[in-house]
Amino acid sequence: MTLELQGIGVSRGIAMGRAHILFHNQPDVREYLIPAFAIEQEVDRFLDAIDQARQQLKSIRNHIPANAPSDVTSFIDTHLLMLNDSSLNKIPVEMIRQRRCNAEWALQLQRDALINVFNEMDDPYLRTRRDDVDHVVNRIHRILADQEVADHEIPDGRLKGHIIIAEDLTPADTVLMQHQGIVAFVTEHGGATSHTTILARSLGIPAIVGVESVRRYVQDNEPLIVDGETGVMLLGADERTQYEYEGRLIAFREHISSLSRYKSQPTKTRDGKSVVLLANAELPEDVTTISSAGAQGIGLYRTEFLYMNRLSPPEEEEQLAAYRDVVEGMNNHPVTIRTFDLGADKTVDGGRNLNQTVVTNPALGLRAIRLCLSQPAMFRTQLRAILRASAFGKIKIMFPMISTMNELLQAKNLLEQCKQELDKEHLEYDHHIEVGAMIEIPASAVCAEIFAQQVDFLSIGTNDLIQYTLAIDRIDDHVNYLYDPLHPAVLRLIYMTLQAGKMHNVDVSMCGEMAGDPRYTRLLLAMGLENFSMHPNAILEVKQVINETNLNELPLNILDIMNTSDPLTLDLLLEEINGPTH
Fold it and tell me: Does the keyword Magnesium apply (predicted)?
């Protein structure tokens, strides 16, 4: 008898394989008093565990082939950096000595303190780093409890062809298991825009999240079928169902393979409308992936990585080197660098001690351009580095989370001051560097016509725009079902921004997840979007949709879609716009 479980499909694709149920068996951490004479012995036990954790991670990294994507090794390197950070390798030692508590308890107390800091951050990227803290701390705890290395970290081939069933997965879990050949994963928790699911899409792993109590229904090694698009998982499928999904799996693989023919083609609709496809990036190593995907440049280069896992902010020369590597690697294709978009609480990493105020609501607190303007010295360092890098290629500067004209004018004024400094120092830069603003909160979308008169371009950040418009936390399992790119309010704000750009002859791009979802490509084209920026792995599929679209034959139902609140009617209208064109 076939059992069907429904969740949220977050990464497309069909997978057939046997279940591997993943349990994160964590030791029971309890506090006990250490005798005075044994304090240093306990400290040594803790430091030995840190060293063993470091050796385990290095061993895992050494088993990763040199041709693996940069995502695969970056998470391991992040965990190694965390092990070298004083917040994990020194503060627990001080606790052991001062409180005379056991190593496990000292580590747990510090873990809780760090997680609280990350939970208060509004920036989704930084907040998901709490998973990395947990991953590292749990590794040390397992070592202190003399537990074996987790089975999904042992590169012995046992996971090849399996479908992972878990309560939740960290990005590091996903990377490690993908490299061991898993074909899909299904979790009880998670959302469509969590860091893990975004990573799954970039790695091409079919995935379903939000299947409540899934581990109660599945037995280890049981045959499963996963449809990452519909969010359906099948257990005990009969021969007819298996045959049907085998055919769909073959068709999907052929479809993905066929996309390669679009790599060398220009991005242009059938009726001759040219469209610009750019890539989002956050590490210098991403340039290789971006170039191979056929992107026409970088529409969003995140700079937050420079401020992570360090005691002080990066100096100008270090930033210059990173930006120069990227712009030179893009071979004269444009690179749009977003100034640092860090969150509300800066008690860790390169932004530590910038804001010691306890924030009641970090979503409305000191972040992005607000933080930049409150720390002008650090902001000027970054602006100078970006300007100097512009001497080596086409660079644009983009300010995040602009909400008032005063913020935009202050940022532009600081940029002009940096230009004057470089002129006095006889340092080269692009004197005509383009400056843009991100539209990612409702206020900026409503005022897009005003902002368009002060910038060279606008970029719609749909992830935050949707989150702020609908007042939901997109990585909160309890409310992320409300995250809806097709909500009438969201579509109206996007349309308003596009119209503002058209009115003032200012380019408008989109760099959120919505831009890389082929379901929305034709809708966005019909609304007037001509510049898309997305994860490199999404480019070819979006390009296929564009190249097979005749704009003149798209149904003129944009206003109907923006005025529709009924989900069934909205689905029909979207299906109509995504229908065949000639």
Answer: yes
